Structure formats: C-alpha cells, structure tokens
Amino acid sequence: MSNVFVVGAAGKVGRRLCRQLSERGHEVIALHRKPEQGPELMALGAKPTSGSLLELEAPALAQLMAGSEAVVFTAGAGGAGMELTNAIDGRGLEVSVEAAALAGIRRFILVSVFPDALRGEEPSAGFENYVVVKKRSEVHLVATILDWVIVRPGTLLDTPGTGKVRADVAIPYGDVPRDDVAATIVELIEQPGVNRTIIELTQGDTVIRDAVHRLARG
Fold it and tell me: Does residue 130 have an active-site annotation?
C-alpha cells in the first residue's frame, strides 16, 4: 500500500478520494485549510494536516509531504474568482510540483479539466480563465521529470458512482460521477505502469480497474 498526499482533500473529489484510499488500505495525508475540516477528514480515514496553498512555499510544503510516495492535486478555487483561480489552480499547482520534487516524490497525479467543458454554451470570463490556468498547469507538470498523470474528467456529478467509466487519451465529452473520478485515481495509485499520460474520463461501460489497466505502457 502507498502513502498518498492529497492536495485539496476537503473538496468534493478530495473527500471521496480520501475515503476510498483509506478503505483500500492506503495511508492518506490530507492537506486542508479550515480548522473544521480536520475532524471531517479524519472521519474519512485520513491524517489531516493544516496548510494553505495561498501561503505555503515549496520547502514548507515539501516538509508536510515528506514520507509520501505519491501526490494527488485536486485543489481548486471552485469558481471563487479569477484571482483565487490563479493562486490555487495555477501557482498552487506549481508550488506543489516543486514541493514534490524537493521531497523526492516522483508520482504526481493532477485532476484537471476536460478541454470541451461548457463548449456550445456561453462560458463566463471566469470559466475561460479557469480553463486557461488549468492548461498552463498541465504544461508546467508535463515539462517536469516527475512520473505524472493528468486526469481530465467530464462534467462532475454527485450521483452515486457506477464503478464503470470510459477512459482514454481522447474521448467524446460527457458526464462522470465524482465517486468514479476518485475511484479512477485510486486505481492510478495502484497501477504505476500508467504514467506520463493524459486521461480523459467520462462515465462508460468499462470497469474502472480494466479501463486504467488498458492505459498502462507496455
């Protein structure tokens, strides 16, 4: 089993991920910002650690990550404005990547955004900025020597997961339950042969374990 450091653990995907990782026997360190989030994350089986991406520099974050074998970045500003998006989804990712390298952690999984998100609608300036920032973050991560995986889920749903998805480097746009996004990340932790690739993810007909296994490099 792995020691996994989750950035954005208190978010909707992050909470599900903490619970699922813990249930599978992994040790989870859950980075959170608000004091009340600590007990909630502990109840999910994670070890809470307090820290804010708005304040942490890479060396301090690396100390919090020490001993972990993988980092999952699922933090986001959640539509709280361009400034926070730039600070959390943008700079926060860059600081986390640097911290992982300083801590000697190679495995890094980034939850990003499907490139077709809200196409055909009239996205706000804030959402357009979010997509641009996420793309820059992907570029930043891909340029590193880390053992990275970028997951681009479709429209996120709070409906119960099905345990089945469609996952590949390029697929049609669609929806996906947050439960299944978290379950896919768990499989990525457990199948390190899937690396240095971008995975687009929607609901589908393939069992998650099998869908991830098909993406392993030969």
Answer: yes
- Cα separation, 13 vs 152, in Å, equals 13
What's the token pair of residue 128? 């357009």
Taking only the tens place, the pLDDT of each residue in 25-78 is 999 999 999 999 999 999 999 999 999 999 999 999 999 999 999 999 999 867
Catalytic residue among 5, 114, 130, 148: 130
pTM above 0.90, yes or no: yes
| Cα–Cα distance, 212 to 218 (Å, whole number) | 13
For residue 148, what are the contacts with CB-CB under 8 A and spacing of at least 6? 108, 109, 110, 141, 142, 195, 196
Domains of the chain: 3-213 (3.40.50.720)
Token pair for 201: 């993810």
Would strands 206-207 and 164-168 be described as parallel, antiparallel, or unpaired?
A: antiparallel
Q: Are 26 and 192 in contact (CB under 8 A)?
A: no
Which residues, including other chains, have CB under 8 Å from residue 43's CB and lie 6 or more apart? none
Tell me the torsion sign for CA atoms 77, 41, 141, 185.
Answer: negative
* DSSP assignment letter at 195: -
Of 203, 150, 2, 196, nearest in space to 216 by CA: 196
